[in-house]
Amino acid sequence: MSKTSNINRVDGFAKVTGSATYSAEYKTPGVVYACLVGSTIAKGRIKTIDTKKAEWAPGVLAVITHLNVDKPVGYQKAKDKHNFGQPLQIFKDDSVLYYDQPIALVIADTFERMQYAASLIKANYLKEEHSTELKKAADKEKKVETDKGNDYHRGEHDGYKNGQVVLEAEYTIPTEVHNPMELANIIAKWDGNKPILYTKSQGVEGTRKSVAGVFGVPIEDVEVHSEYLGGAFGMGLHTWPYEIAALIGAKKLNRPVKLVLHREQMFTNVGFRPYTIQKMGLGATKEGKLTGLTHEAVAMTSSYEDFMEGTVNMSRFIYDCANVSTRYRIVPLDTCTPIWMRGPGEATGSFALESAMDEMAHKLNLDPIEFRKLNYAEKDLEQNKPWSSKYLLECYEGGMERIGWKNRKNKPGSVKEGDWLVGYGMGTGTFGSYRNPTAVKAKFLADGNLVLQCSVNDMGPGTATMMTAIGAEITGVPAENVIIEMGKSGLPKGPTQGGSATTSSVGSAVHDSCNLLISKVLGLASENPSLKGIAITDLTFSNGVISSKKDSSKKVDLTSLLTANKLEGIEVENQSKGTEEAKKYSIYSFSVHFVKVLVNPNLGKIRLAHVVSCADIGTVINQKTSAGQMYGGAVGGIGMGLMEALEIDHRFGRPINNNFADYHVPVNADIEKQEVFFVNKKDPISNPMGTKGLGETALVGMAPAIANAVFNATGKRVRDLPITLDKII
Ligand code: MOS
Fold first, then answer.
1. Atom of ligand 1 nearest to the CA of 344
2. Does the reported pTM lie above 0.80?
3. How far is the CA of 376 from the centre of ligand 1 (A)?
4. pLDDT in tens, 524-551
5. Residue 480 and residue 496: Cα distance in Å, rounded?
6. Less crowded by CB within 10 Å, the N or C end of the chain?
7. Is the CB of 641 under 6 A from ligand 1?
8. Cβ atoms within 10 Å, residue 358
9. Is the domain of 71 the same as that of 213?
């Protein structure tokens, strides 16, 4: 274990003491306060909107609606297509496309006056019939033009039907919402024609691009700050209409405008995990060899934007099976556009696949892990490539031992602890390990500090800590002397934080830039009088001192070297990206979640007695932050399995439980014992550190593990998440 592998979270103190500045907290002289008023119907047109009372209310500076808005130039340029990335054009016209769609922006000189004025706005509508229920609209399903990969066949189409043993089942997952603690929030202002945003985004560069498109300004003119995030889970992967509204307001008043969504708006205006219906077909020999696998998904999207995700992806490669078919369709509904939510489609898909695998194992009277081992994929049959590394078997073993799998009986309901039925279940997870081009600047200062700069931001997994650990490891600079500058435009361009790709992308760039920086230092040192005549290859850099490998008395320290050259610092900026060699391999992370549940069959109560999450994520850069992510992801999966569902009153197309009292998420008391285990073996291909992705695979496979454990305890198969007590009594 290296000395940096367990450093504390470098931004932990700032975050827990409140000194970390979130978007809406920036001290901005002259800032004014805005909020959005939402429609009270799910579909139709605004017949009249009365803003007079609000406009006359004390302190009100502007009320903006479709009737008086200065439409951003990008609205005209937008293509008349539903391609993802063209969000709702706020205040474009009188149409209402979903419940709580913003219909007015109210800006006042104080927060209280803004709220009061907003309460005075009244609208009348021409209502149209809305459609918010996927099950009733499934006949409207469509295949997206740009979807090249989801209609997939290997071997015989729907070959599962020819299996000696056949299983067909349908699974549903409801809409779930991200709802990070930090609300969606922005301070927007303009410097002439240049937009400046302090906003909650997972991608500084992505936000710049979207805003540039809407307002018709060069990308380089858009300034974005998103330095600290209080969670996001995927909701920050889109630039949302509220951000555009704040910019429109700031432009009109030529003043900074602060806009914070209220909690109810977090359920309606910034995306969600889409309601999805899945059909599985599995065929196997009597001995348990899979002969066919079909996975179909139908998911909701909005009426104006086609959102797709990787729901059926995992089924194409995770098991060794000759005949595989996958299909994916979407149905436009009258809601806001969905967005990736942690583990995204893969987590949704794993619920169907890993539940069906459990059902098939039961049919075959096989232990679920034995059944999976019989169908272990030695290579990726979808891409026909070898795995870069795969320690899935180690995850199975590690979890079986920790959870006490040997106590499991194949026959449901056969283990008891007092009045409680005991069940054991597991689910496999996987997620692609991506590496995106990333630029990082590394700089030694004369005072011995190392500065690392990248525009990437950190929604919580510990990106700054990872950068610090890698920078410290390579340069030998103590972690406390590494200064991270990130999360704003103007820094070397980093990727969006998403798809579990940040460590592989940014970590590799830190690695490469730090090595180049050392080379540059050695080059400079070789010309210093104290090292004159020594070849660069015979020099070494350690703890801030450059010395001869052969004669350690010949040395110069970095500070003296910089002073001698009249330099305040020495720096390199470099862009790193994936290698051609890596393209020859299939690079995935793997996880297996194990749970032990106790079920009271009379009360329907489910207790999570023990949860173990095991993962092969290549090298673990930092045990603390990685384990933190794994615990958190697993808890997200537990919410998905047992609690989370956004309930819609379809008569009105609006949510019922749009608050934290009614929308349940797990808390500490819900999980009696939780463990995390990493195989921690370096991937030889993925990147210089040998890491693979972590964030998503921390969740993928958890919900089915719970469903499978509940079945093992009770004999009741719940195919419709979440597994609430009404479904098992
Ligand atoms: Mo993640 S769902 O890519 O934020």
1. 2
2. yes
3. 28
4. 999 999 998 899 999 999 888 999 999 9
5. 26
6. N
7. no
8. 24
9. yes
